Amino acid sequence: MANIIKILKRPAVWITLSIVIISAILTVSGNEMRSDAEAKIIEETKKLNGELSPFEINIDEIFYLYVGERVPFHFTGEQLANGINLSKFITTPYNNLTSDEFHFDIKNGKLQVSATIRDSEGKLITYIVNNTWKTVDPNNELAFWDRNYNAYAFEVITPDYVPILQVAMIGSNRIQLGGLFYTEDGFVRIAPTSDGGATFSYYPKGMSIEEANENLSIPLLFEYPALTNSSNLGKMQNPIYQSSEPLAVLNSNKQIGFYLEVTGLVMVSIFGGIFILTLNVKKNSGRVSTKGKTISGKKGGKKSKNTRFQYGL
Prior knowledge:
Number of strands: 15
């Protein structure tokens, strides 16, 4: 015991022990970081595929729909389950929307939008049913329109990259609406703002979408093209999450965690071995060895003059 106390008083022993402890912490931290990143990579992949909502949805609480600079509309979870007709929430001093109805709902944790899209002449361009394009006829030049979405936002744009429909979850039970919507006498322009509100404007018939958008443009939610470039699917320009490429960040964290874990394991093996060897060597350095000791003579006789003691190192 006294030898162990003497050993522990040596600075070199404490330095080695400290390195072992730090290495063990690195190993544990690296393992947790890697495991956490792997779990989040799976989660983010689901989000980008529209399979998982990032916000907690409480069907028993009130949902709020933000349309312009006004008190948000609210509705129940039961109404949401049956689908919400967006057309009823977009009005002007003259008319409600006369274009076909827009619906959205949330099912299985996924924001779903259904709509019929028309051009400025009232011509039906396409259907969207639960985020999926449905062509009107085989000759419809659908490639000149685009849409993008993830688990918590949906957007449709014109060939000139003007958003005509935007629906986004901006928090738990909070939904924001934006885009350009036609009425009999013109169209309504709703440009969402970063604080959850929006600018709400009405333009008379005869003004083009492009002209209205030049006056006060509606920011795009997503990167394009999406129909012809799947790598842009779900990628937002100004994401609700911290990074527009969360998988890149998480993959980096996964690599860092892996390197920390491996480095910690190597250091624990090396310096842990050194520490154990140091204890054993120091503990044995003062131990008496009787190896080589010889005793001659019979019982009660004299000890041989050749009797000797050997000490181990």
